[in-house]
Amino acid sequence: MGGYKMKNNNGALIRRLSVKCLRKNKVRNLFAAAAIVLTGLMFTVLFSLGIGFIQATQTELMREVGTKAHGGLKRVTQEQMEEIVDNPLVKNYSWDIFIGFASNLNQRQTEIRCPSGMGELENTMVHLEEGGLAQARDEMVVDTLTLDELNLPHKIGQLVPLRFSFMGREVTETFRVSGWYEGDLVKHASTVYVSPAYWEELRGQYTNEEVDRWNQSQQGNTELVGKYQVHINFGNSRHIEKNLKKIIEDAGYIPDQEVEYGVNWGYISTKTGSMDPLTVGIFLSALLVILTTGYLIIYNVFQISIVQDIQFYGLLKTLGTTKRQLRRLVRRQVMLLCAGAVPLGMLLGYQTARILMPLIFRGTDYEYLNFRLQFSPWIFLFSGVFSAVTVWLSSRKPSKIAGKVSPVEAVKYVGTGQERLRTRKNRLRNRLLSMALSNMGRNRKKTVMVVSSLTLSVLVLSLVMTAAGSFKLDAYLDDRIIGDFILANTNYTLGSPRELDFTIDEEYLRGADSQKGVTGRQDMYLQVGSPDLIPAEKALQRYRDFYERGQLKTEEIYGGTREIEKVMDGKKGISGHRYAYDTELLQYLKVVEGQIDLEKFETGKFVLVTVFGEEDRPTGSIYQPGERITIDLLTKGSKPNIGEKGFSGWSDTVAKVYEVMAVVEIPASMSCHSYVANGLDLILPREDLLKNSRYTSIMAVSYEVEKNCREAFSSYVDSYIRSMNSKMGCVTRESLAREYEQWIGTVRLIGVSLSFVVSLIAVLNFVNSILTGIHARRQEFVVLRSVGMTQDQLKKMLILEGVVYVFLASAVSLVLGVLLSFGVVKQLEKVILFFQYQFTVLPYLMILPAFFVVAVLVPLLAYRKLKKESLVEQLRRASV
Questions:
Q1: Domain ABC3 transporter permease C-terminal: where (predicted)?
Q2: In angstroms, how far is CA 534 from the centroid of its own chain?
């Protein structure tokens, strides 16, 4: 019998007591529920924005790639396709056949294809607004961009003229619209879909051998007539490239040699850490702030509540309640509150995130997506788990306090230091401030919790406002624009090219040249698809060093290590863009090494090379000033060599040796906004780049205009774009300034909103601490009154306690704010070009006065309730 423990079966009683305790402590429940709701709201907003960012990135990449399929096969025959897709790994597939390019549509490249069915349209993210697939010979599915260029209405049955070249002969047809869909500027081209009946009629005149010979003779075409483009989906998006290679090899072909394949970047990029370290750091910091804030208030609410009801828990122990049952009693109350508050917080947070998402993307490269947050169960799973864990952690220690208390200690304990009151009766004449400080010192944990939550809210606002105020408009504009206006194709002006077509209407530029007040024009040139650079031995060794140090991009979205190994093995050169500029523009390049001598550069013997690597991962340069560099230049007769295996280089190039004058960084206003992974951009003499005008063109033109004529210049530009060619665009210094202010305003809005929620939690924590403290110390106040303390003195003491809380929070937040902003925010200077650290005291002037007002009002209002009872009534109640 000595080792046997009797068990009391009072679980039902514990459950009933939990509910009754909740009903009794209505004020505490209000504060606790509000804290849990706000914690759930903040977690949900954070995870919604994080997942929304991933969704937007994935959507952009898929629209750019042109498909939502996992991967695909390029330019294969029907026989190859059927052999490859006949594999258990393939869940489903669709295909289309390339026919040609429409020649009567100039504003946008338009491809003519024959699809396998609705599955192909779904895989290529084509959603018909009206109608269906083409069935009859003369039917066609068309997009709105094509109809708009032809000035035709969007309606079924509309006749659409189409002219294209097929096997060397010109074909002119008129089709009827069987279905139409919204055109997408993100995709590199528009696509019209004809019927299988029309394709069979067109194709039936030629043998397979004739089609193959024709394709081999067309060196300038990237698409091959009659070949299949296949879109493949597997069971899941894991190991896409591995699965593609396997199904190709299982069919007896060699991947990338006999059969070319492609992986959808949209799936890969979201699995390989597409967020940069700065974004990850911000996300984790926000997660830590929310976790800390929620923990502070929920812990404080329940800790104060436990202390307040400690005698009740002691009595329960006297009646036989075990330590474990008391912990369950407290945690059950917490879980009951959590069951209602967390879902409400998640719902409010999700709706808040849906409102915030478009505001965050406004003025960024994602604005054109018109993105709306899409439902994801992960949002609610993550936010629910983190909210529940935060509540559980917060209530863990208070529940232990309730379980550990003994009946004797509980009867004596009041949690506010009242047991030491007798030693202080002779000190009533001391200063009230000393008494206030002494009272706060009785429960140091509570004081630390309240001060910490107030401090945290001030720190969040301080860091956000300091960061927002450190962005410099002038530096931003200098990086984004040269002059007052930049005229270019929309592939340049949108900030992220949808296709490498930067053609500018000559009439557009002639009209701009003729406007009044134009004081300067500078042209920027770009050569598309330049020959790869074969690096010299020293440069190649530096390339190898960068790779060995992990400074090259090896993610699958950039081709993995295959392309890097080919460069190091000498099997291919280094890709990159080639630019040329009017001489006046060279001064805007940022020189990293060496110096630019404009007179020497105009001799045509020198070249400028860019920093090797992307802005967020600069690696230095593989060429140094003074070194020789050999560059293959395109000539008038140069053409791309394209065969069965795709592009294989250029014909009729001429090698020229230059001296590297300087290593530079190209500002955004002078680049095509397109990045070549592990590539090297070159700035050549203008005359050398223009030797092949077919593949070299004016990328953008900068105009300087007198101030009083800028409005008229802008009106001309708007009129031309609206009435003549919507593919032409314009960037103005004024519009960029507005976008900048809008973007900074969004940053401030999000930061202030987060700070407001954290501040609201801090105020709730503060109010709860003051109210419960006053309630628990009522007997102490009676004794103080009985020995001579006046009501006015008692009121002042309580107000001083609240003010001291805020004063301590002010001092701590100011010291930590300076240290953190200097140690964290200042580091952004290293990664953001137009960022210059500037500390601001504005957040402290905004939030601390409000806290002081609350610190005065809450004790004042709470004391008024005590004041209503006479001293005799209070003494009678205290003696009970």
A1: 286-400, 753-870
A2: 37
Given a contact cutoff of 8 angstroms between Cβ atoms, the answer to whether 721 and 341 are in contact is: no
pLDDT digits (tens, 9 = 90+) for 342-397: 899 899 988 888 887 777 666 555 555 566 777 888 888 888 888 888 888 777 77
- Report CA-CA distances (Å) from 494 to 454, 672, 678, 736: 43, 10, 24, 12
Measured distance CA(351)–CA(343) in Å, rounded: 12
Q: So what's the pLDDT on residue 83? A: 94
Containing 33, the helix (H) or strand (E) segment is helix 26-65
- Pseudo-torsion of CA 729, 735, 740, 745, nearest 10°? -120
Residues 274 and 60 sit within 8 Å (Cβ to Cβ): no
| Rounded distance between C-alpha atoms, residue 98 and residue 73, angstroms | 13
As a dihedral over the C-alpha atoms of residue 508, residue 513, residue 518, residue 523, rounded to 10 degrees, the angle is: 80
Residue 820: CB atoms within 10 A of its CB come to 16
Chain CA centroid to CA 713, Å: 36
Secondary structure element (H or E) that encloses residue 723, with its range: helix 710-723
312, 407 Cβ separation under 8 angstroms: no
Q: How buried is residue 319: exposed, middle or buried, by Cβ count under 10 Å (0-12/13-18/19+)?
A: exposed
* 3-state class (DSSP) for residue 114: strand
**How far is the CA of 318 from the CAs of 7, 312, 406, in angstroms?**
15, 10, 8
Angle between helices 444-469 and 842-867 (to 10 degrees): 150
Select from 220, 197, 217, 200 the least CA-distant residue to 209. 217
Task: Look at residue 812 and tell me whether its pLDDT is greater than 70.
Answer: yes
DSSP symbols for 683-719: E--HHHHTT-TTTEEEEEEEEEE-GGGHHHHHHHHHH
Q: Where are the alpha helices (DSSP H) in 251-370?
A: 265-269, 277-308, 310-318, 323-361
* pTM, to two decimals: 0.56
Amino acid identity, residue 644? E
Pair 729, 557: CB distance under 8 Å: no
Percentage of the residues of the chain whose pLDDT score is greater than 70? 75
pLDDT band at 428 (very low <50, low <70, confident <90, very high): very low
Q: Angle at which helices 11-24 and 323-361 pack, to 10 degrees?
A: 50
Backbone angles phi, psi at 739, to 5 degrees: -60, -40
User: pLDDT tens-digit profile of 731-775?
Assistant: 898 888 887 777 777 777 777 777 777 777 777 777 777 776 776
C-alpha span between 598 and 582 (Å, rounded): 11
Query: Angle of helix 791-823 relative to helix 444-469, nearest 10 degrees?
Result: 50
Q: In a 10 Å sphere around its CB, with 0-12 CB exposed, 13-18 middle and 19+ buried, how is residue 344 labelled?
A: middle
CB 727 within 8 A of CB 108: yes
